[in-house]
Design brief:
single chain, alpha/beta, TIM Barrel, two-stranded parallel sheet
Length: 395
């Protein structure tokens, strides 16, 4: 890999993370600006929020690399790779961070392969419901994956094109297709779907099964396109790498479901998907989904848990979130924790607490982009204070 110096060491730590057996300090995503662009960090990056990517920001991007339209941004492999190379040339991938290109058509793209249309905007993507006019699910045909579907063919073409253009210099990620009831919400419309779940839950459960089957077929196609020579893969946005099929699972619609309904409608799908993959992260999104945590942790195939407090909420180091982490660690899951609240010194202090409680063996820490000086200080501190910490928490 062109832009990562300690990749062989990092791969060992990643493999051990999924098995909850990491040694040394916790895994950390640390992406640093090269000194020659540090002076640019005081002002906005080119394009503002539209240029923010999962690892950091584009700085000093040549005018000719700026996207001309949404097709150029999302569907032009050559240009997408050229822009990402420019990012790589301006940054250092330290600790367990690694260069990986997101070629998403937006979170939830599985809906588009099953009939929804996609709307692309500068900083978001949405999926247009295609079954909202049906009286009930009896009027809707079986949800079968068609490998010739317009958006699937286009997305696979883009991802394969990115892999070819990358030439092995960095990973191209498995896209965020979403799963289970969230895909149905895009196809049917959330309000109509919630009514369906009350009026005809058996019909909805059957459609969840159909979505799950389609998910396998799409996952296989994308995995085959992006896997490395050892069969490993990377997953978009969450900056994770793992042996075999590396995926994220979630259920945002769960925020509107009772615990009994979530257990009845979603659990089987999660179990099947987790069993089919090899390295599995669960994305628990928002306070209203916490009530499903006990059900989610029943899924043996889920290896790690990531918690997001919601839009503009505090980061994952808050002591209040220990109620989530305690249960996850008691269930034998690794933790994925995003660190961003406060300034640099706050990040270190807040993580100190987390490491001392939960140990270093099952922990991944995602930090914001930073200066090289900060990165060196952080890694040195982690090596000295966070290495082989057993932690005080006992399940």
């Amino acid at each position: 890999m062109k832009y990562k110096e300690n990749w062989e060491e990092a791969k060992v730590k990643w493999a051990n993370y999924w098995k909850h057996q990491n040694t040394g300090r916790p895994l950390m995503c640390v992406v640093a600006r090269k000194p020659e662009i540090e002076h640019l960090a005081d002002g906005p990056a080119d394009g503002g929020i539209a240029d923010v990517i999962c690892q950091g920001k584009y700085y000093n991007m040549p005018e000719e690399l700026g996207w001309k339209d949404m097709e150029d941004k999302y569907q032009n492999p050559k240009r997408m790779v050229e822009r990402y190379r420019q990012f790589c040339e301006n940054h250092l991938f330290l600790a367990e961070s690694f260069p990986n290109l997101t070629a998403d058509f937006g979170p939830g793209s599985l809906a588009s392969y099953l009939g929804s249309d996609i709307g692309f905007k500068e900083d978001t993507v949405w999926f247009t419901p295609c079954f909202e006019d049906a009286e009930d699910w009896e009027e809707i045909p079986e949800l079968k994956f068609d490998p010739e579907s317009k958006w699937f063919q286009k997305h696979l073409e883009v991802i394969k094109g990115c892999v070819a253009e990358a030439k092995g210099d960095f990973y191209v990620d498995i896209p965020d297709m979403m799963e289970n009831i969230d895909v149905l919400a895009s196809l049917r419309g959330t309000e109509d779907l919630l009514c369906d779940m009350m009026d005809d839950p058996d019909a909805v459960k059957e459609r969840v099964k159909q979505v799950t089957k389609a998910y396998y077929q799409c996952l296989d196609a994308f995995y085959d396109a992006v896997k490395d020579e050892e069969g490993a893969s990377a997953y978009t946005v969450f900056q994770v790498w793992g042996p075999g099929r590396t995926v994220k699972l979630q259920c945002d619609t769960g925020a509107m479901l009772s615990p009994d309904m979530f257990h009845d409608m979603i659990l089987d799908s999660l179990k099947e998907q987790a069993a089919y993959a090899d390295s599995v992260l669960y994305h628990l999104d928002g306070p209203d989904n916490i009530r499903h945590l006990d059900t989610i942790l029943q899924v043996e195939g889920i290896d790690a848990l990531q918690w997001t407090s919601g839009d503009a909420g505090p980061d994952g180091t808050l002591e209040e979130w220990d109620q989530i982490y305690d249960k996850a660690r008691a269930a034998g899951k690794s933790l994925w924790i995003k660190v961003y609240s406060g300034g640099f010194e706050d990040w270190i202090r807040n993580v100190d607490r987390v490491v001392q409680k939960y140990g270093s063996h099952s922990l991944f820490l995602f930090f914001p982009e930073m200066s090289l000086e900060q990165a060196n200080k952080l890694i040195a501190y982690a090596n000295e204070h966070w290495s082989d910490v057993k932690g005080t928490f006992n399940a």
